[in-house]
Each structure stands twice: as structure tokens, then as C-alpha cells.
Predict the 3D structure of the following.
Amino acid sequence: MDPPPPPVDRLSNLPDAQLDDILNRLTLRDAVRTSAISRAWRRRWESVHGLALSFPDGTPCSAVDSILLRHIGGVSRFAFTLHAADSSSADPRVDDWLVALSRRGGRVGVESISINLQAAKGLHGSPLLRLLYLDEVDAPGDFVIEAPSLQSLTLISSEMKYDWRFGELPCLQYASIDVAEYMQHGLPVEDGYGFLEFLARFSQVRELILNSPTYTFRIHGVPFTFHNLKSLELWTQFNFMHHILLMFSILRTSPNLEILKIKLRRQGMIANPEFLNAQWTDGMCPNLQVVQITSAEGWLPLSFMKLILSKVSLLRTLSVDECPASQDDPLNELLNCTIASAQAQVLFKDKLDEINFDRTKFAEKDSPKERA
């Protein structure tokens, strides 16, 4: 009797395209381990295009060097976290890593670098770099960000001791700026010019997220225009006058803005309705359609909400995350104010069943989901 035929190795007989698709769905660790499956899989991860090089927290720099030397294909994502205590041995390598990645085929996106770049020279001319995420980076004075294909930039820093410098970023579409202490070091606290000069580097973006500076500075307007800006998200406080002035200055210079999101960090309003009304100029926000406000512990800026309802002619929705019971009759205030847009609705998330109101003007809707 003939012996049974050997079992078919289906994993080894898969088409090359399917092998590569499987590898691109795996973590870096699992992709490397597939070399043990069979001859068809051996070292295949080293040449596959689109592999995500995401290194877990605590990965030694030597391991990153080894992976970059062995993997010659295009990279879809590069993520590496280095703690400040370990940064001295890795600082000179960061530039080499980014240069090596920028020369690969395929799309390269630096998703996350959390590192002290004291010895780094910056990000210069990476032709394929499209996404850059810098978290708690302390950039020295000669650090420059320049990438001709960069589309998305996120800067997060709780305390910056140096100024950021930028080269050409002609393709930048999205910027998320959380540098609340920016320019506090080395400038008089009342001088806002440095921050506005910094903000001007993002005047071409279509979507901007900005955490307003916590220190006090004077502002007399924004000396440039956000021509392309469609969506603006501001983390701000209405009990700081410079936050209010910065918000209105940006709104006045964003003629094509369609979506405004306000995230309140603290309760309180320092400005009266007359002052807020005086900040609104003719022709301001002509294309604004959606306003979303996230309350601070249930507190909402009712006078600002009334201003939006009375001034924005194309407004479709003004949505808030809750209807606060602590403020005096907020619904009556909004119902009795002038509404500039016939299509305007005010949307509350919570407590709708406890309140009697005209449902032709108000409707229930969940608050927008937080950005992933």
C-alpha cells in the first residue's frame, strides 16, 4: 500500500501578494517571527513593502539599527519612543534613521517620536515624509523641520525651552499644536509676537487643532490669513482675555472656515456680552456651518453661544456635550435670542427628557466622538 501523500503546505503555496498582505497586517515582532514557518516565509519580511516599524517602549537603539539594516522595503509607519534618561546614546542616530527611511520606496510616515533631540539637527528634506508626530520633544535652537511632502504635523510639548524653526512645508494640510508653554522662555510675558510668528507657519493648513498658550500675552490681531482653513479646534478658556482675543483674531482671518470646535479647559467668563459682540466684525465667518462646544465641568459660555446664533448666517448646528442644570434657565436664553440662520439647530446630549422646549428648534444628538 502506497504511503499517503505529504500534507499540502498551504501557507507556503500562497501567492506572493497574499504573503505580503499578511505580513503588512502583523506587528513587527510577529512579522520577523514568520521566518520560522517555512522556506517561502524565510526573511520575506525584510523586503516587503508597507511594513509598519513600530517599536515597543523600551526597545534598545541597537535593535532599531538592526531592523533598519535588514529591512530594505518601503515603510508605512515608523514609531519609536525613547525616555530622556536613555537619550544620550541615541541622539546622533535619530537623524540617520529618518534619512534612511526617507530614501525608501513607498509611503513613509513617522507616526510617533518621543525623544530628547538635543543632538539632532532636524528633519531636512525628507522627500517621502507625510506624517510627523513629535511628543515632548525639546528641540534645540538649530533644529529645523522641513519636508516637501509633509501633510500632517503634530507637536506636543508641555515646556519648550527653545524656538521651533521651520523650512518649506508646501503640502501641509493638518496641524495639531499643543505647546501651551511655547515662547514663555526667553520672551517678555506680554510679548505675543513670537507666538504669532510661530502660528504663521501653519497658515496654509485645512485643519488646525490649537491648545491656546497658558501664559499671558498681548494680541492685537493676526497679521496673516488662514485662506484654506476649513476646520478649527481650540482648547481655550473664556476666563483669560488673551484666549478670547486670540480666538476672535483667528476667526476673523479664516474666511472659509466651516467647522469650529471649542474645548473648554476651565469654567468662567471674563468678558461681558457687549465686549463679545464688539469683537464680531461684518462679514466674519461667512461659511461657518457647524459649531461644537465641550463644556468645562458642565459650564458653558452662554453669551458666546448666543453670539454665534445671532451672527452666523449659514449655521446648521450648534452642539454641546450637555445641558447644564446649574446655569439660570439656559434654554430660555437661547430660545429668546436672535437666530441669524433659518436652518440653525442647538443640539444637546443629556437631560433632554427633563426639559420642556420647542423641538422644532432643539433636537437630541450625541456629542461628536473624540479624535482617535
Notes: The first helix runs from residue 16 to 24. The first strand starts at residue 51 and ends at 54. Residues 332 and 357 are 9 Å apart (CA to CA).
